[in-house]
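Quiz preparation item.
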């Protein structure tokens, strides 16, 4: 598997209590083996579509983004959407709801009629997280699939088709790939941030010694952290649930602490499916990362 050359894999230790979105997950989850297998099948199917478009060229347009970045003065931004996003969404929906027709659906590329609010089980997907990287040929985009149960992300799949990297786990997984030890300090850590945030300077000052590594897809960044690459994923802007749900489940399996920018646990399948920023970290530096944000004086509205 390809690893970003500048992000060393950190040592691992045995997992302790698992958390997803900052909340302790009880051990009495239903058996999600079939769901995990279906999600991986769907992700590979979506990845094959993306690879086809990558080779032939994908047309794209623009749509208004729900991810607000008011501290930068840009307010509501516009994001690129390609025809690949739409085709992958249809393939994911066919595969997952074909296997589990009673479940609900929340996707970046599908109309949200909010019927999902009546369901305990909701698939939360981003058919192509990192569209800009995809269109630019940067191998840092991913298919992101999560299953939320009663508002908690309990299963996540993140697939980078360019590198053929599959990250898949339930929050109660015993997969040794998903295990994090404590970091020495934020000042000695790798912080994974978005390429756009890095380019536009949409980040608060970081402690001296902290190494900042820009990586495209936020779902991919969270998957990298869950498997021991880096110590912190930080984003100060509002994010949609489909950006974060799969990564939150993987980080839950790894024992990381995952909250919004205010330190509140993440809740999914909400009426307004957006989150006030993200701090996902090895548990012992999460508080230090929050203080970094608080001391910056920046605000999210």
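Solution:
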């Amino acid at each position: 598997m390809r690893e970003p050359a500048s992000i060393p894999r950190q040592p691992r230790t045995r997992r302790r209590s698992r958390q997803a979105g900052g909340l302790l997950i009880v051990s009495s989850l239903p058996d999600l083996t079939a769901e995990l297998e279906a999600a991986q099948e769907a992700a590979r199917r979506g990845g094959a579509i993306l690879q086809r478009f990558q080779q032939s060229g994908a047309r794209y347009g623009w749509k208004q983004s729900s991810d607000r970045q008011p501290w930068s003065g840009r307010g509501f931004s516009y994001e690129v959407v390609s025809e690949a996003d739409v085709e992958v969404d249809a393939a994911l929906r066919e595969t997952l709801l074909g296997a589990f027709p009673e479940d609900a659906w929340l996707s970046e590329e599908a109309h949200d009629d909010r019927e999902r609010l009546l369901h305990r089980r909701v698939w939360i997907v981003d058919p192509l997280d990192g569209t800009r990287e995809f269109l630019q040929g940067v191998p840092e985009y991913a298919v992101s699939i999560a299953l939320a149960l009663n508002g908690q992300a309990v299963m996540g799949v993140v697939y980078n088709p360019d590198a053929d990297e599959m990250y898949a786990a339930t929050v109660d997984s015993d997969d040794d790939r998903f295990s994090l030890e404590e970091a020495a300090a934020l000042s000695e850590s790798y912080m994974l941030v978005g390429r756009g945030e890095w380019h536009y300077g949409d980040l608060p000052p970081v402690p001296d010694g902290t190494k900042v590594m820009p990586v495209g897809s936020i779902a991919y960044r969270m998957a990298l952290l869950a498997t021991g690459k880096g110590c912190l994923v930080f984003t100060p802007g509002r994010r949609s649930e489909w950006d974060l749900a799969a990564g939150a489940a993987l980080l839950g399996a790894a024992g990381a602490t995952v909250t919004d920018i205010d330190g509140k646990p993440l809740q999914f399948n909400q009426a307004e499916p957006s989150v006030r920023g993200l701090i996902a970290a090895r548990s012992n530096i999460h508080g230090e990362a929050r203080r970094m944000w608080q001391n910056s004086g920046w605000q999210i509205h």
